[in-house]
Each structure stands twice: as C-alpha cells, then as structure tokens.
Amino acid sequence: MFDFFTTVSVEYARNLSPVTLAFVGDAVYSLYVRERLVLSTDFKTGELQKLTSKEVSAHGQSILLEKLMPLFTEEENEIFRRGRNAKKATRSKNASVAEYNRSTGFEAVLGYLYLTGQYKRIDELLDTVHEN
After folding, report:
1. Does residue 78 carry a pLDDT above 80?
2. Candidates 3, 26, 42, 123; catalytic one
C-alpha cells in the first residue's frame, strides 16, 4: 500500500539517483508555483499556465538559484552538486546546458527535502526567495 506524503530516511534518499530526486523535485516546485499563483492572484488558467511555465523552466530556475544557493546547507549543496553533475537522458530544448544542469540540481534538492519530510525547509527556502 502506498500512502501519499510517505517519507523516507535520509540514508535512503541519499542512495537515490540525483535524477530520480530531480524527477520528484520538478513536481514539488511546479505544485509550489501553481499553488502560490492560485492563492495570490485571480488570473484565469491560461495566464496561470504561462506564468507557471516561465517560473518552472530551466531558465527560470537558474535565475532563482542565484538567490537560493547562498541559503543552502552543506548537505543541500552536496545534493545540488550531485544533481547538477548527473548524467541526464534528455536535453532541454529551450535552455542552455548550464541552465538545464543547474535546474536539475535545484530539483534534486527539492526532491530530497520532500522525500525526507523536510517540508518546512522547502517553505523556508522558497518563501525567502519569492518575497523579494
């Protein structure tokens, strides 16, 4: 049986592929952006989709990382580096290789935090950079 919001141990999460962590982190960030936009605006779904796509793109995440990286703990930096440097099966059509690699690192951090149940840390990081 699977329970939504199941958490795993730090050791288990560390043993997951960084690309797998990024797979989860991509969904986490997309949901965060969608929820934030829905709760803070009254835009129609078409506009919400455009804004979401811009923020969750590799380019948008790479810009976000400029503010976010100084806030990372050593553990988060390690996960970021693993994700950034991981061999990926696909390439981005609309972003540079560097942007795509950085966004994968960012998503790996979010996936790691989510899977280990560190929801408050996700809020702390994302709320801090979105306040500015």
Report:
1. yes
2. 26
